[in-house]
Amino acid sequence: MSDFGVYVHVPFCAERCGYCAFVTYVGADELHETYVQAVIAELERARELGRLSPASSVFFGGGTPSRLEPDLLASILQAIPRREAAEVTVEVNPEDASAERLGALVDAGVTRFSVGIQSTAPRVLAALGRRHRGGPPDEIAAAISASGAATWSADIIIGASSEHDEDLLATLDDLLGLNSPPPHLSCYLLSVERGTALSRDPARHPDDDVQARRYELLDEQLEARGYRWYELSNWARPGQECRHNQLYWSQGDYLGLGPAAHSHASGRRSWNVASLTTYLERIAQGEDPTQGVEILSEAERALEALSLSLRCSSGVPAESLDADELAGFVECVGDRLVLTRRGRLMANAVATGLRIGQG
Predict the structure, then answer these.
(1) How do residues 222-259 score in pLDDT, each as one tens digit?
(2) How far apart are the C-alpha atoms of 16 and 2, rounded to whole Å?
(3) Full domain range(s) for residue 321
(4) How far is CA 208 from the centre of its chain?
(5) Does residue 16 sit in the same domain as residue 139?
(6) Which of 188, 194, 134 is nearest to 160 (CA)?
(7) CB–CB of 64/94 below 8 Å?
(8) Is residue 357 part of a domain?
(9) Which of 36, 49, 101, 190 is most exposed, with the fewest beta carbons within 10 Å of its own?
């Protein structure tokens, strides 16, 4: 049986970060219970339409999933059919990471936490507009350990205007020096998204050259400490890769629930309305919350598969790229071409040379 994923979007936040372009709402906590019931109703509709299979992975993203009370999040999880040993991830903000709250989520079936550390340097967090103010993440790690979760990941953002190389190195030392360090890290280059507070403040825009240097510094540090990159922005110790995200990168099938959530089924992509109000209204009226659908041709799927695989350490078949033209950007590993560290920084440019071959 092929893997199947379920993504649940939780669009609530206590504050909006200046760089965030996701569909999120501040000051809408009174809608939590209504929203949870709507998600369960959408799930049941998908079941009736034959679009729901037992999940090998479930991912609660946002927004801030930990903004929901554990019993509400648990009610969604209980409605999702899951396979034995399914991976269940919940994104958590540090300020929500109490042992009691995390333990309740583990009791409900959560196996993995993804914690939005971003940085342990207060000045970096202030520039990013984050609520928490940094410092060593000892209490967070202790709460996760006490919760009984099988594993966890830490998110880092690189490129805030106030960040220096030493801040990144200190953040890595703080995380990897823990008694139980995160077996997985997701490390993203800060991007400027249209409509965000960051986009309206050019003085705080990240510098491409600085970000490239920090990416290389990060990769060197993680590699030296036993982590390996398996996707452009993700590193893990062996066997600790995020199974849900690997499903996306391998063109697997998944169901997205909530406003702006995307779904995929054998080349059929669909996405929900982005407005929370419209989403709730459609669900309440028994209507489909889908906003749009796209059907990919076989050729489009094949090219997309190569593009996704290029982003990963698995690479692409050797005939998919001209290795001579891309010397220094790709390296041959067996019969496949894999991005070098330098190539990862130019992944989008390298991808323009992809061609559908025999492999």
Answers:
(1) 999 999 999 999 999 999 999 999 999 999 999 999 99
(2) 37
(3) 299-351
(4) 22
(5) yes
(6) 188
(7) no
(8) no
(9) 49
